[in-house]
């Protein structure tokens, strides 16, 4: 009896082999082509309109890809890749997608030429390790005891492709000041820059150059009642996470009353419970009360009489930052172990003063002189919402970059310098290998050149000529000992020439480049591994479970 090998009956469609690879590569190319034109200092912006008609105008790769609702599973890998880069480094989201798509395209060509995907994968892995090693050994410049100049240059490089590039000097100073002012040392003695402590507030009106840095954490809400004082100093801050409204019975609690006068007592008691809570707060010494929920008018009266500032409906994340900066504890309930209600004064945070100021047309409560970490707020001014949103994204990227530079202390030249140097180096390395990986490494080297190419194309310059010149410089730098300084030659996209970008102040943190190469390679490998795709069809009618 012969066993007939037949396809198992799958309710769905199955594609395998070369079809799937080609399809995946095409999908990734499509995603990469969307963000390609937004790379670099002369990159263009994208306008995205979502299903309810909200408009986003942006240049940030991660934002563009997040707004596109990508269906294709392989292209989704690229979108996640951009978000990962955004989380890890903060900038370089566009480059990482472009490099990954290019690596895939090259790998697909190799597979068509009968080279097994496994050889390509191991070649890519080897190339990635060598590239990262080469960056760390040969290309980085230590920025010892960073002065402000390299930091400002890093911030300017990060902003060069965004809306605010015209005022990049002004914003770069703003960003560097902001990051330096949240410097702190953690328990292990490492110096950290928690940029989450930098609050970005957007206010309409005036021009972008009127943005400024405020010392203190700004809450985007006013006081709860007009009778409260405008400033309290020194401030003892209580952070609450429950309602200070008239206590209502829980749902499903039934009270049977024989005497109608008892009803009045129940109502009175309900009112008194909130009053007692507020008195406990004030007795503990709190004179600034922040809550994420509401405070009703009856409760506000007590705060006004005590001369305390109460702020209601504070955002959860703002609350966390305030609690961290002032040393307060977020209190979710007054109940203690014994079933009584108490408030421990140790839960209060301290700050030098809490004031309410008017910024543009909004009232803002500022918390200044916080106890543990210094919190700062960037107040952005701008003509319209789109502009403000885009400024915020640009500043977020720049803040991340400055933070990475400060923490890693190493920078590399920007403008395609690193990619060209790696390309020349890896090509040379490939010729020294006698194994199968040789072709994969040569393709990897070629793929890295996509960054300088795209940069030049976006700047409306002759890409072929510029990239050829650039590679010639880097070849010289790597072969002749006295020409080592050529290794930081990169593109000058305004004039369409080659210049030493390290001296021109176009620099990026080395960590950003290393991560771009690592993440792009990993993503390309993940997609390259796939050789079979089974798409299950949704069953109609039976799916009741």
TrEMBL record:
Gene Ontology biological process terms in this record: protein folding
Superkingdom of this protein's organism: Eukaryota
NCBIfam families referenced in this protein's UniProt entry, alphabetically: chap_CCT_alpha, thermosome_alpha, thermosome_beta
Protein name (database record): T-complex protein 1 subunit alpha
Keywords tagged on the record: ATP-binding, Chaperone, Cytoplasm, Nucleotide-binding
GO molecular function: ATP binding; ATP hydrolysis activity; ATP-dependent protein folding chaperone; unfolded protein binding
Protein localization: Cytoplasm
InterPro entries: Chap_CCT_alpha (IPR012715), Chaperone_TCP-1 (IPR017998), Chaperonin_TCP-1_CS (IPR002194), Cpn60/GroEL/TCP-1 (IPR002423), GroEL-like_apical_dom_sf (IPR027409), GROEL-like_equatorial_sf (IPR027413), TCP-1-like_intermed_sf (IPR027410), TCP-1_chaperonin (IPR053374)
